[in-house]
Structure to design on (208 residues):
């Protein structure tokens, strides 16, 4: 187990190093998203664990939360990564399909989805599920790559002999969809990340 933890952490550091060599600071970008999402409260859900970069950011900040991914293989990296830092007990890992979640209505007060939207085959179906499990007092925090971020990701995937598949639906499309459903939306941008925060307009300023 120790060897597996160390090997996984080495892969994690190599991946971060690859991002960094192209100008993308993983820690800085995840911290930016977390800062813009403040304040956090209640039950938190992360949609799309992936390899666990944002999962780790949330756990390091002291939060306990639920995270899900459709891929057991991807999430296995995240589990090992959290275990390496001794933070895995803060996280409830689930395997779920975002188009049909098992959670009850209004189960979560904050839902994060980071760099997942561009992978989704049926993004509006997934968004509808997020809204179903979001409490009335809750907020939805969506972040995805800017155009510069997508160019960078294309380079990274190409360097590994892969093609970075990107769907047609953008955060701007989702923003329009959410506004149409009566949500208020705040936005923020870094060089590589777009952040969209949606919540019911009756919420107080302290919770948006």
């Amino acid at each position: 187990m120790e060897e597996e933890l160390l090997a996984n952490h080495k892969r994690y550091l190599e991946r971060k190093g690859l991002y960094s060599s192209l100008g993308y600071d993983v820690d800085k970008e995840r911290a930016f998203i977390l800062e813009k999402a403040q304040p956090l409260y209640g039950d938190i859900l992360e949609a799309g664990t992936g390899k666990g970069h944002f999962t780790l950011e949330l756990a390091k900040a002291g939060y306990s939360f639920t995270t899900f991914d459709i891929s057991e293989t991807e999430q296995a990296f995240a589990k090992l990564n959290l275990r390496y830092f001794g933070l895995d007990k803060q996280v409830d890992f689930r395997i779920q399909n975002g188009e049909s979640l098992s959670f009850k209505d209004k189960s979560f007060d904050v839902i994060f989805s980071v760099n997942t939207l561009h992978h989704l085959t049926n993004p509006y179906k997934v968004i509808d599920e997020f809204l179903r499990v979001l409490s009335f007092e809750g907020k939805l925090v969506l972040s995805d790559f800017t155009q510069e971020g997508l160019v960078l990701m294309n380079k990274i995937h190409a360097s590994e002999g892969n093609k970075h598949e990107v769907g047609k639906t953008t955060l701007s499309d989702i923003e329009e969809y959410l506004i149409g459903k009566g949500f208020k939306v705040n936005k923020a941008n870094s060089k590589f990340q777009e952040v969209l925060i949606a919540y019911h307009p009756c919420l107080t300023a302290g919770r948006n």
Q: What stands out?
A: The chain has seven helices and seven strands. The longest strand covers residues 134-145. The beta strands are 44-47, 65-69, 91-95, 108-114, 134-145, 184-189, 193-199.
